[in-house]
Amino acid sequence: MASPRLRLAARSFAVACRVPNSSSRPKLATSASRRRPNPWDASLSALQVSYVDLLMIHGAMYQEAKGNLQSSLHASTRAKTWKALVAARASGKARSIGVCNFSPRHLAKLSPPPAVLQLEYTPFLQRPATLRYCREKGIAVQAYGSGGGGWQLWKKDASLDLMHAAPLQAAAAAHGVSAHQVSLRWALELGACVIPKAAKAEHQVQNRDLFGFALTDAETAAIAALDAQKSVYKFGDPDLIA
Ligand SMILES: NC(=O)c1ccc[n+]([C@@H]2O[C@H](COP(=O)([O-])OP(=O)(O)OC[C@H]3O[C@@H](n4cnc5c(N)ncnc54)[C@H](OP(=O)(O)O)[C@@H]3O)[C@@H](O)[C@H]2O)c1
């Protein structure tokens, strides 16, 4: 039985959960799989909740075929996993369903369309075509990495140090905020929602404080010029996956 604390958490916060694009392969959506819980049932059980607010496929790639990006298994597995997520939503285990790290071409094949696309979206990787597609189709864009997270993984590569990029530093100084707040505000102003991760209380407080300032046109243009189609996480371009 769920502890009162977890029951409270499930109602006070949005709980999101990601599953791999392989979740349909071991026939997880069929009765034959009952012996082994599917990834979202395992997560619901671990979290002690009866549903999650958002259930997402983590990526367009079927990991077991990662050596051949043109393998038809990527697309066929995506289609089956998406069908299984649609069923999970219908059964009340997920309020909304979405995907991460898909290109517009992958998104176009999903029926019904996802509620959310979660993707790396930073001043270094601006993906205007993907944002445009999502806006047209009513898919919410959830930006990760705009809090500079990927940099923690690759600290030796100074070219990935987003928070020290001059336009972010200049806007931060002008508004009396941090470069993190500027980066998050930039993503919000371009229509994405942000999901910064912060363990430190002072970071959490800062990251909630994004509405007391607005970037000027000149600051937005300077940040736009940082676009280098560069993944700070060094993930490949999802569009290369069939
Ligand atoms: N779908 C995917 O493939 C994918 C990939 C990556 C991430 N994500 C998700 O995206 C969410 C965010 O993760 P992220 O990797 O993008 O991290 P992030 O929010 O870009 O950055 C997190 C890092 O930035 C620091 N930080 C946060 N706010 C700060 C502030 N105001 N000033 C200074 N430092 C600050 C944090 O430090 P402290 O922790 O010390 O406070 C932490 O080290 C997570 O829920 C994650 O699961 C999804």
By DSSP (H or I, 4+ residues per run), the number of helices equals: 9
Any idea what the shape is?
Answer: globular
What is the share of helical residues?
A: 25-40%
Largest sheet: 6 strands, parallel
Identify the CATH architecture of the largest domain.
Alpha-Beta Barrel
SSE succession: HEHEHEHEHEHHEHH
CATH topology of the largest domain: TIM Barrel
Short description:
This protein has 242 residues and is α/β, with parallel strands linked by helices. Helix content is 37%, strand content 12%. The protein has 2 domains: 13-100, no CATH class; 118-242, NADP-dependent oxidoreductase domain (TIM Barrel, Alpha-Beta Barrel).
Key traits:
242 residues; alpha/beta; TIM Barrel; 2 domains; 6 strands; globular; binds NADP nicotinamide-adenine-dinucleotide phosphate
Topology of helices and strands:
Blueprint lengths: L3 H9 L3 E4 L19 H9 L4 E6 L14 H19 L3 E7 L3 H5 L7 E5 L7 H10 L2 E5 L21 H10 L3 H11 L3 E2 L6 H8 L8 H8 L18
Parallel strand pairs: 1-2, 2-3, 3-4, 4-5, 5-6
NADP nicotinamide-adenine-dinucleotide phosphate (NAP) binds next to α8.
Describe the structure.
With 242 residues, the protein is of the alpha/beta class. The chain folds into two domains: 88 residues, no CATH class; 125 residues, TIM Barrel (Alpha-Beta Barrel), CATH 3.20.20.100. It contains nine helices and six strands, in the order αβαβαβαβαβααβαα. A six-stranded parallel sheet has the order 1-2-3-4-5-6. Helix 6 crosses helix 7. The radius of gyration is 19 Å and the shape is globular. About 3% of the residues have low confidence. The structure holds NADP nicotinamide-adenine-dinucleotide phosphate. NADP nicotinamide-adenine-dinucleotide phosphate binds next to helix 8.
